[in-house]
């Protein structure tokens, strides 16, 4: 290896001798024209960079950001998708795959007045290592396989007409709507949800959605810190690869990340679901990145909820009045009529006919919810649907009273539309509107003798006692004493599920999975082995919880001299 020459500092005498040996240059006076040229070149350079800055900051911003506080990191926005780019991504070999990300700052990001969103790759942009590949179909029963094998590009017109009629929908004709399947874009938050419940909902949705947008946060609804589940470690990377595969190879699945900038003091006094609503805003950007159009359908739910597969197919092709173009966007929702399971497929609430909600006979849930893309914020036209006023910083969270909340538009009409000489229009919808603005659309059930359900809610399907207590102590409507209570005392839903585990069914509950009066049942639990495994696990959780707290009560009584 060649030796590198090292220069040492010169002594003062050496420096002086060298200076004497150097010939002095004659001073020449530079003409004024040179200074003018330099100044002109500098001015041109400044103008050039200013124009480029303005141009790129304009063209790369996410459209329709109405909040002046939101700042988009345009350097990190994803490129416009096309088939050529997708093919290049799909041709990546396993050797090309990056190591698990450990620096979230490398992700594309969008900053807002309440926090930052970080957008990773979707399932069509990664190569799953062979060691992480799962064969989902290996456990399918023949019946499950038959029900899931319905994604042919050829539309069976007679079959689809019958499907549409079963929900009271018409069938598209050449004069009304084109005969094609709509694209469905899904959004849900994800956290400590059990693998069981994710497998149950994703099987119902297998190969149906165009996009599945999942948002994870590193804090709960009340800002209790928690660890990332799908980011930052080898185990997280393996779990992410598993999740990518559950929804089928035709679906783009992404887990993006939300980091709030708010403190507990800043959310004090606001409604309990504010932080959830802020987190859900990330779906809008992911949907837009993935090319959502006004004629696509947005579906918002929790990860433990899903429309039935048959109803999802109906939403894709039927003439649904709320999905016709040219909506006012005041009441555009389509809402599920949902069968609720508590902790086990063998524990469900009675499905009350002609009823949505809770009454003395039983209970029907009313999520998830669907809406036409032209009514979705970031996708629809703000000139046709002017923004409304919201409770957090004017443009975030739920709508203000009389500005479109709970179907009341009095102030929206008088203070916003009237000035624009408009009437009858509604604002564009944020994801939290799609979920939480109840009764601003149409709940749908089957037109049969049971009013069979169009959705399922797998509530409290956790894997152990700790997960259940953490949820009730830190998420929506938190109970600070949940960590020290028996399961049956934490919530009435858990009380029903505990009774069911003991074979003691409440009056408002079904006695088994088979007793449900409906032509709709979740595909995952049509597998008897899966039903038995989950119910046995729930019974084991209840036995351990009973033993723990029965012993605690016995010890307390003994100390008090009552035993």
Describe the structure.
A hairpin with a 2-residue loop joins strand 2 (108-112) and strand 3 (115-119). Helix content is 33%, strand content 13%. It has helices at residues 12-21, 32-59, 83-90, 142-148, 157-166, 195-204, 234-246, 264-267, 274-280, 282-289, 309-317, 410-417, 431-436, 465-474, 487-490, 492-501, 528-559, and strands at 71-72, 108-112, 115-119, 184-189, 211-217, 252-260, 297-300, 305-307, 333-336, 338-342, 357-358, 363-364, 369-372, 390-392, 396-399, 441-444, 455-459. The strands form four sheets. A ten-stranded mixed sheet has the order 1-2-3-6-5-4-7-13-9-16, with helices on both faces. Strands 8-17-10 form a three-stranded mixed sheet. The protein is globular, with a radius of gyration of 30 Å. The chain is an alpha/beta fold and 563 residues long.
Quick overview:
The protein has 563 residues and is an alpha/beta fold. The protein has helices at 12-21, 32-59, 83-90, 142-148, 157-166, 195-204, 234-246, 264-267, 274-280, 282-289, 309-317, 410-417, 431-436, 465-474, 487-490, 492-501, 528-559, and strands spanning 71-72, 108-112, 115-119, 184-189, 211-217, 252-260, 297-300, 305-307, 333-336, 338-342, 357-358, 363-364, 369-372, 390-392, 396-399, 441-444, 455-459. Strand 11 (357-358) and strand 12 form a beta hairpin.
């Amino acid at each position: 290896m060649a030796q590198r020459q090292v220069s040492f500092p010169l002594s003062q005498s050496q420096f002086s001798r060298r200076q004497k040996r150097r010939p002095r240059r004659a001073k020449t006076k530079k003409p004024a024209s040179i200074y003018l040229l330099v100044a002109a070149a500098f001015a041109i350079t400044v103008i050039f960079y200013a124009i480029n800055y303005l141009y790129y900051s304009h063209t790369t911003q996410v459209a329709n950001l109405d909040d002046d506080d939101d700042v988009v990191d345009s350097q990190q926005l994803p490129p416009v998708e096309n088939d050529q780019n997708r093919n290049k991504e799909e041709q990546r070999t396993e050797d090309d795959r990056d190591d698990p990300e450990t620096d979230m700052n490398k992700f594309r990001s969008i900053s807002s007045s309440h926090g930052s969103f970080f957008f990773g790759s979707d399932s069509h942009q990664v190569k799953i290592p062979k060691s992480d590949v799962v064969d989902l179909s290996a456990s399918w029963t023949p019946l499950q396989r038959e029900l899931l094998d319905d994604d042919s590009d050829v539309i069976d017109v007679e079959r689809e007409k019958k499907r549409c009629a079963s929900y009271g929908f018409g069938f598209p004709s050449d004069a009304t709507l084109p005969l094609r399947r709509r694209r469905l874009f899904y959004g849900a938050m994800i956290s400590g949800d059990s693998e069981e419940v994710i497998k149950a909902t994703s099987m119902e949705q297998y190969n149906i959605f165009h996009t599945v947008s999942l948002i994870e946060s590193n804090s709960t609804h009340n800002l209790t810190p928690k660890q990332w589940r799908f980011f930052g470690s080898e185990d997280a990377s393996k779990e992410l690869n598993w999740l990518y595969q559950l929804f089928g190879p035709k679906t783009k699945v992404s887990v993006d990340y939300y980091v709030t900038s708010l403190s507990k003091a800043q959310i004090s006094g606001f409604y309990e679901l504010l932080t959830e609503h802020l987190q859900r805003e990330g779906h809008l950007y992911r949907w837009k990145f993935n090319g959502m159009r006004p004629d696509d359908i947005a579906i918002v739910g929790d990860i433990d909820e899903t429309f039935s597969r048959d109803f999802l197919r109906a939403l894709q092709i039927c003439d649904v009045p709320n999905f016709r173009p040219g909506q006012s966007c005041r009441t555009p929702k389509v809402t599920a009529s949902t069968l609720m399971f508590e902790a086990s497929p063998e524990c469900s609430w009675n499905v009350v006919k002609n009823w949505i909600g809770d009454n003395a006979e039983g209970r029907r849930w009313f999520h998830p919810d669907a809406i036409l893309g032209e009514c979705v914020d970031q996708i629809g036209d703000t000139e046709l649907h002017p923004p409304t006023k919201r409770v957090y910083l004017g443009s975030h969270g739920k709508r203000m009273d009389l500005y479109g909340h709970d179907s009341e538009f009095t102030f929206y009409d008088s203070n916003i539309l009237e000035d624009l000489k408009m009437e009858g229009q509604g604002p564009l919808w944020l994801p939290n509107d799609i979920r939480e603005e109840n009764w601003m659309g149409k709940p749908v059930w089957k037109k049969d003798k049971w009013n069979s359900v169009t959705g399922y809610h797998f509530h409290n399907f956790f894997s152990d006692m700790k997960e259940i207590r953490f949820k009730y102590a830190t998420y929506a409507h938190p109970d600070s004493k949940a960590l020290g209570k028996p399961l049956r005392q934490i919530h009435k839903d858990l009380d029903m599920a505990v009774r069911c585990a003991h074979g003691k069914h409440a009056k408002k509950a079904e006695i088994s999975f088979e007793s449900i009066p409906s032509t709709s049942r979740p595909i995952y639990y049509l597998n008897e082995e899966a039903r038995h495994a989950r119910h046995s696990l729930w019974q084991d959780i209840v036995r351990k919880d009973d033993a723990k707290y029965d012993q605690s009560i016995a010890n307390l009584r003994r100390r008090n001299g009552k035993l």
